[in-house]
């Protein structure tokens, strides 16, 4: 697990050219080579590499290639170990599968380069990544690729766990144990199918009860108020109002229905009033006139199992994200897009939603759509902001929003954190009350995601070219939005969110305090608004001294 001091990240570089020269003649190689390189990233006490068996891991230096020719320190990472495991799972099941491996084109060195960028913003040396391809005919080139595949450090037995292949040696009881595991897996699947059938029956009964309850409630609301009701209304005047459904920054009650989770120093602002069953019903209404293929109907049924019946993310098939991408397309219509986003916002409160998010590494259907936030109708913008806010319910999904790895969309280089920042700033500065409310909530969630203690002194320990999860330039952009909000004299709730975000941003980036002092307005002008606003203003003032 990453600590405040960080975890070192090393690059192991192996030279395969000596073996090639001993096996192939210079005529076949085409030209002399300074090195035929294989590389791996070593972090958290393991060596991670990519080859013909997919993404693999082993003890450092324990591959068939022996000791590396060179070990290069890439930097230090502050990414938590579990987040890194989730990231590798996404790579192993999308971009870097065993079938996708191509020697000299999509190989171990490009894998190491991408992982290094994710961990600490470093890059693998260009001569390693872009080693020249032999100038030979296609048949000879294929033969060379097959030879190199055999030379890569792949053990005879590779076990697959959580999307990452871990190299290990067989034990005498391995086959027996593997058979027992397979039998247990089949039994588990059978039990899960039975449980799913029972859960569906119970859900139907519950929906019938709920409809009956709502009908009785409507009848009760239409009935004239009694004298007792009037008296009760008089007696409760001046009493505190009950908690309203909507945005909340409070942690779930220990005895409530929500699963227990560790409460961070700054609990996120969430929209818990989104009901999965109701939102799914809204989506089905929006799709009434749509013509769905058999695969699309299957994906819609999977969404019902996940969102309404509470099944795990395992029910979502391989084509589910393609289905979501079609729902968010221009052809689907505004009503369908809004309903799909609200379903995603309800799903974002689930603790396993991150497994779905990591499947979107190849298409970037979700954040590719989100980048067009300024072109969307207001209801869609609002639903998108709710989705992003609720992703801060769990650390893994929040980290996904803050990933710095870059990807291409419509000829532009984007990253998750940049798209998140764009949605945040656009909604927070909107004139629409609903958008501003969700936008200030997202601003608060993004700025307060990182613990203050973890950021003190981090910049001084990072290499000059390394980037933190919240870029310095992103911090400045968020701070500028916060200052514009302060200039608009927001209401107390929005003022508190804005000052809380600004109080964290002045600690995240050395550029923000100077920006506050030069651009203004001075947050001290709002002293006396409330005790909690004063507390945040004091934190800002400490950094401006």
Ordered list of secondary-structure elements with their pairings:
Blueprint: E1 7-15, H1 17-23, H2 26-29, E2 37-43, E3 46-51, E4 54-58, E5 70-77, H3 81-93, H4 108-120, H5 126-129, H6 138-151, E6 158-161, E7 164-167, H7 174-222, H8 227-235, E8 247-248, E9 270-271, H9 276-286, H10 294-307, H11 320-327, H12 334-347, H13 353-358, H14 365-370, H15 378-390, H16 395-401, E10 406-409, E11 412-415, H17 416-428, H18 433-447, H19 452-455, H20 458-461, H21 472-487, H22 492-508, H23 511-519, H24 531-544
Task: Characterise the protein shown here.
The chain is α+β, with helices and mostly antiparallel strands. The chain is built from 24 helices and 11 strands. Helix 15 crosses helix 17, helix 15 runs parallel beside helix 18 (433-447) and helix 21 packs parallel to helix 23 (511-519). The protein starts with 6 loop residues before the first strand and ends with a helix. Residues 153-163, 165-175, 223-245, 249-264, 451-459 and 464-470 have low confidence and may be disordered.
Task: Please give a quick description of this structure.
By secondary structure, the protein is α+β, with helices and mostly antiparallel strands.
Key terms:
two-stranded antiparallel sheet, alpha+beta, globular, 545 residues, 7-stranded mixed β-sheet
- Strand arrangement within the widest β-sheet reads 5-1-2-3-4-7-6
- Give the terminus-to-terminus CA distance: 35 Å
Mean pLDDT: 76
Q: Determine the fraction of residues in helical runs and give it as a percent range.
A: 40-55%
Structural class, from helix and strand content? alpha+beta
Q: Beta-strand percentage? A: 5-15%
Question: How many H/I helical runs?
Answer: 24
Rounded Rg: 27 Å
Per the principal axes of the C-alpha atoms, what is the gross shape?
globular
Largest sheet: 7 strands, mixed
Number of strands: 11
Low-confidence residue ranges? 153-163, 165-175, 223-245, 249-264, 451-459, 464-470
